[in-house]
Amino acid sequence: LASRAYTPRSPDTLPGMVAYQTARLTLRPFTPADVPLLFALDSDPEVRRYVHLPPPTSLDPYRERVERCLR
């Protein structure tokens, strides 16, 4: 597993955070721009088949979760 310093593409990310990258996958810190993407993922019917929680109805819980990750 190779790691490299994460270079923020947006002022919303924290400098100095590390991303882990392989040939097929990059894991990086969440950014506020990820909120609608996380909501869309959890709203996807194919994903919902495996998640036994009520479907999301608001972006707010996702915003809060990303904000907690950035603290």
In short:
This protein has three helices and three strands. It is an alpha+beta fold. The radius of gyration is 14 Å and the shape is flat.
Question: Would you kindly provide a written description of the structure presented here, covering whatever features stand out?
Answer:
The protein has 71 residues and is α+β, with helices and mostly antiparallel strands. Helices cover 34% and strands 14% of the residues. The chain has a 3-stranded antiparallel beta sheet with strand order 1-2-3, with no helix packed on it. A hairpin with a 4-residue loop joins strand 2 and strand 3. It is flat and about 35 Å long.
Outline, from the CA principal axes?
Answer: flat
Helical element count?
A: 3
Q: Quick one: biggest sheet?
A: 3 strands, antiparallel
Order of helices and strands: EEEHHH
What class would the helix/strand composition place it in?
alpha+beta
**Rg calc:** 14 Å
Question: What distance separates the N and C termini?
Answer: 26 Å
Q: What amount of the residues lies in strands?
A: 5-15%
Query: What is the mean predicted local confidence, pLDDT?
Result: 82
Q: Give me the side-by-side strand order of the main sheet.
A: 1-2-3
The tally of beta strands, per DSSP, is 3
The low-confidence parts are none
How much helical structure, as a percent, in the residues?
25-40%
Assembly form of the protein: single chain
Characteristic terms for this protein:
3 helices, about 70 residues, 3-stranded antiparallel sheet
